[in-house]
Amino acid sequence: MIKLDSYDKKILEVLLNNSREQISSISKKVRLRRENVNYRINRMIKLGLINGFNTIFNDKSLGLTRYSFFIQLTNLKENTEREIFDYLKNSKYMTWSGTAAGKWSLITDIVIPKNIELNDAIKEFLIKFGSFIEEYTILKIEGGDYFDNKFFGLNKIDKPFEDRKIKLDDKDIKILSILNENSKTNCVEISNKINLTPNGINNRIKLLEKQEIILKYTISLNHKMLGFEWYGIQFKINKFDKEIERKLRLYLTNHKKIIFFYQYIGSSWDYDVGLIVKNSTELRDFIHEFRKEFPNIKIYDVFLVLDETSNYKLPKGVFI
Fold first, then answer.
1. Residue 265's pLDDT is what?
2. Where are the domains of the chain?
3. pTM for the whole thing?
4. How many CB atoms lie within 10 A of CB 159?
């Protein structure tokens, strides 16, 4: 666990809200000299607390479909697990992944453009590692949200956005792919990779933000270094009711320990929820609280996320 002072926490809060924020701007907000801000950010990167500068995109406006891929591994040979992790990091269509303790050994997200079939996105993986897979299930994500600010007790709710299909040209796609790799990349650096002036790059980024293709810039944090355990909890609504579902989504959005949720349709469970707690006692307290609040919603499964092996980024295949 890393020790953070009030300045470190303020810097992280700024970066969680906008990871493209300039050092000079952060310096003014936290009332610390620029060189000190820069040193602290680099220190937190070096220690592994900050492990990614991310751009959050509107999947639907980009014509993307997202799935959750749950895998139970078996009979692993020496180095097989590392081979799987390396494959996922370089996959064209698989993105965030993590190991877990429970029924599922490995969980990853699959993101595919509209011209790619799901089977084509996973076929190579299943052929390569099929002999080590005991069981798997793939669920289409119909909705969800992520609340990264809750790591610091903030309950900021992002503004709602519209799903709109926007026509993008090759330069837009290239800009998005660069920001996908590192949201901090500045317009001069992008200009060196694309035949556009820095001012032209800046104007395109502003338009992509206005069109809500780009929703947000943020950072990925190592939850363990902040003293948190991350549990995945799966819920099943026994009887569909619009009012119960509305109440549930409001509860998940506002609860201070829930950092994300995914919604599925037509599966063994309806929601996946990410819960951050300090220990198993807090987990038990949450479960008691939830059952009291929602007696008609079944807790289908609970598992501990051990490690994140790949951070959030859109996979490379969506930009081809």
1. 85
2. 1-47, 226-305
3. 0.90
4. 6
Per-position b or e across 29-64, b if 16+ CB within 10 A of its CB: ebebeeeebeebbeebeeeebbbbbbbbbbbebbeb
β pairing state of 229-237 and 297-310:
antiparallel
Burial grade of 204 (CB within 10 A; 0-12, 13-18, 19 or more) = buried
H and E: helices and strands count for the chain: 10, 10
The pLDDT tens digits for 2-38 are 899 999 999 999 999 999 999 999 999 999 999 999 9
Beta bridge partners of 272: 234, 262
pLDDT (tens digit per residue) in 138-166: 999 999 998 888 887 765 555 555 556 67
Q: b/e for 118-135, b at 16 or more Cβ within 10 A?
A: eeebbeebeeebeebbee
The class (CATH top level) of 226-305 is: alpha beta
Written out in words, the top-level CATH class of the domain with range 1-47 is: mainly alpha
